[in-house]
Amino acid sequence: MGRKLRSDPIELARRNWLDHHWDAAAGGMSIVTSVMRVQQIFASEVDSVLKPLDLTFARYELLMLLDFSRLGQLPLGKIGERLQVHAASVTNAVDRLELDGLVKRTPNPSDGRSTLASITDAGRKLAATATVSLNDRVFANVPLSAAEQNDAFRLLAHIRHRAGDYE
After folding, report:
1. pLDDT tens-digit map of 93-111
2. How far is CA 166 from CA 98, 105, 129, 153, 158, in A?
3. Helix, strand, coil share (%) of the chain residues, nearest 5
4. Residues 79 and 104 in one domain
């Protein structure tokens, strides 16, 4: 990005909403716009860590999900549910991770119709390397106090719950 702005453009947009008598929507607009901007900031920081490792955040999340699973493997459908993504996105991510030797597909022995994705030793090693870097450079540096982080998480979880992400 270029030079720093002297004032908050989202606050200016909020004032414009109020000036147009859209008072009932002004708070929501400013929250949605702020969350979208913060997502851009976080995505840029995460990408700067993961890109040199030839990972995207989606592939990193998939590796970590498998790494945290009891057996290091999960059915593709379960991966989609847990990551809250479409089956095609899971297939694409597994395809790429498999090509890179980080994941392997195996038939599900308990259900002949589904396929398991299993993390390889190389996948575990890369996931660990990426996690150390993300913890150091991104996750431990969110510019909020621990209490503020808990409050933000709780508020965002409330929105996700109302949207039907979980019961």
Report:
1. 999 999 999 999 999 988 8
2. 30, 28, 30, 15, 10
3. 65, 10, 25
4. yes
